[in-house]
Design a protein that fits this description.
Strand content: 15-25%
CATH class: Alpha Beta
CATH topology: Cytidine Deaminase, domain 2
Distance between the termini: 35 Å
Structural class: alpha+beta
CATH superfamily: Cytidine Deaminase, domain 2
Bound molecules: tetrahydrodeoxyuridine
Strand order of the largest sheet: 2-1-3-4-5
Number of strands: 5
Number of helices: 4
Number of domains: 1
Largest sheet: 5 strands, mixed
CATH architecture: 3-Layer(aba) Sandwich
Oligomer: single chain
Radius of gyration: 14 Å
Amino acid sequence: MADDATLVQTARAARERAFAPYSKFKVGAALEAADGMIITGCNVENSTYGLTVCAERVAVLKAVSEGYREFRRVAVVADTRAPTPPCGPCRQILWEFCGDIEVVLANLTEETGRYRLKELLPLPFDARLLG
Ligand code: THU
């Protein structure tokens, strides 16, 4: 299991690969699977704007498509003084595949926040409701 600093550093490196020519707001994510593997994501924007995909979702979808199904932590990095938390749709996607994981938020120099996903999505919709 990677230490927090390594996970955050990995998210910072992923952020460098962001494709964000429109917003110029680069985000990196590093998702730790149960076996310790770290899967990264960065935001990938599109000229239509609406087809932009956030860093967190890129990481989750990459991981799931590679066969990972259990996760422990995710680090999200943006160049902001205040914490940059996952957006609403990303919280939902994270919940679907990761459940109540730890979410570590950081900027380029320091950690800015630490939450359980349940704190960020207190009343989630999920498969249990489908019966
Ligand atoms: N973005 C992310 O990648 N993750 C977040 O947690 C917040 C927002 C991206 C989407 C878009 O490319 C840019 O940041 C500005 O919203």
